[in-house]
Design a protein that fits this description.
single chain, 173 residues, alpha+beta, NADH Oxidase, four-stranded antiparallel beta sheet, 4 strands
């Protein structure tokens, strides 16, 4: 995959994502690496437009665009099942974004963990209530997916900041 062409997409066409593509995206997440192969991640696939509009309210800022997406996948991890739960969920979420891009779809990460709704409620609790997710799951993020209705320029070599890379010891470029 060409990482220079993958960008976060927040505007989507009103076209449903095909079941075959959803399955491929979920397969990437289900096969993503986890600490000690613990497989603590589970997913809630939301394609109901009314529920998507409700879920879009789970953050005070930065989630309103979700209301117009055709597909949202909640990424969760079972608490106590892995000592690397946050990392496991993050890897699964990014695996979905990479696969979506490979399939010609746009995506965007919406962070949920440790965020709040406009009225101060936990975003995780809000999501759990809307989706009947049990309390023993930490909700990491939403991966919002659809056919892009916006064009963003590809990254170029100028966007790559090699000053953030050290070799063997910090600061050794």
């Amino acid at each position: 995959m060409d990482f220079m062409t993958r960008r976060s997409i927040r505007k989507y066409k009103d076209i449903p994502v095909e079941k075959e593509k959803i399955d491929e995206i979920l397969k990437a997440a289900l096969l993503a690496p986890t600490g000690r192969n613990s497989r603590p991640c589970e997913f809630v696939v939301i394609d109901d437009k009314d529920l998507i509009k409700e879920v879009a309210e789970l953050r005070e800022h930065g989630s309103s665009f979700v209301k117009d997406a055709p597909l949202v996948i909640g990424v969760m991890g079972e608490i106590g099942k892995s000592s690397t739960l946050l990392a496991d969920c993050c890897i699964a979420g990014f695996a979905m974004q990479v696969k979506a891009h490979e399939l010609g779809l746009g995506s965007c990460w919406v962070h949920v963990n440790e965020r709040k709704t406009a009225d101060g409620k936990s975003s995780e609790e809000f999501f759990r209530e809307k989706t009947n997710t049990p309390d023993n799951f930490m909700v990491m993020c939403l991966i919002v997916i659809g056919y892009s209705a916006e064009e963003k320029p590809h990254y170029t070599e100028k966007d790559v900041n090699w000053n953030k890379v050290s070799y063997n010891k910090y600061g050794k470029r």
